[in-house]
Amino acid sequence: MKTAILLPCHNEGAAIYEVVQNFRKVLPDADIYVYDNNSTDNTADEAARAGAHVRKVRRKGKGMVVRRMFADIEADVYIMADGDGTYDFDSAPRLVEKLQRDRLDMVVGTRVPTQGHETYRPGHAFGNRLLTGIVKLIFGTGFTDMLSGYRAFSRRFVKTFPALATGFETETELTIHALQTGVPCGEVETPYFERAEGTKSKLSTYRDGFRILTFILLLFKEVKPFAFFGIAAAVLALLSVGLFAPVLIEYLETGLVRRFPTAFLSMGIMLTAILSFMTGLILDSVSRGRRELKRLLYLRFVAPE
Fold first, then answer.
1. Which of 89, 155, 281, 291 can pair with 22 through a Cys bridge, CB separation 3.0 to 4.6 Å?
2. Sheet holding 185-192, edge to edge
3. pLDDT value of residue 134
4. Which residues pair with 191 in a beta bridge?
5. Reduced to 3 states, what is the DSSP secondary structure of residue 246?
6. Which of 4-13, 108-117, 215-224, 285-294 has the lowest average pLDDT?
């Protein structure tokens, strides 16, 4: 089977040569592709010197790179990793083995820090647990390490993945797409190391964490619109009832309605709740049609051997 190793990179010149060389040692028959995303250092030159196929993506953002990689590369098995040397190269064959042995479509490399406090910063670890927990709460299931960038994919997963994210939220999109379509997935624990000397993280704990959270809520609306708008409708209906209760009690006691503004406000909020509920019903039918289409596209590809 043809295997492709995909390495999205931005300013990883200090590490990419060793990364390519080490992946070649553990998977000598794999084709290694380095996608350079507007690097200002020697990332492309070092990757080419190591023997990788180097391609450039001008539009900034990891999601843009993943979109281009998945569209361009033809293979049976895909491995995606970062070019900073933090992932364990020896785990790559184990990811491929589990993908093929269990006939899966995605295997996530669950990161296990091995080199002290700075390997996996507390802020990143907390954010990962929080976002992973939110996804599990919304979708009822999930992965141990939702934000891991170390993954193996089957061809039919890659070629039916819509790839709409633009930045670091692409791992979230991969995860939610797998959960929504119900494709078979698995996890493999893999050591996680400190970044190579001379490289630095491109991930901002707060900025990118907020973007990922926003993206999760957006996908929640797209994937489960009835639940999303149903919750909004329930909150609005309760607010409306809470506002109208004193008006109703006063009317029952005196036969008069003195709080017309409150009554009108309550009525408007209840109408909004009804509209929200109906919107959820309509969009749920649309979402079901989209899921069916994704499933049909997925079934066009041969199952992994």
1. 89
2. 53-56, 31-36, 3-9, 77-80, 151-154, 106-113, 185-192
3. 82
4. 112
5. helix
6. 108-117
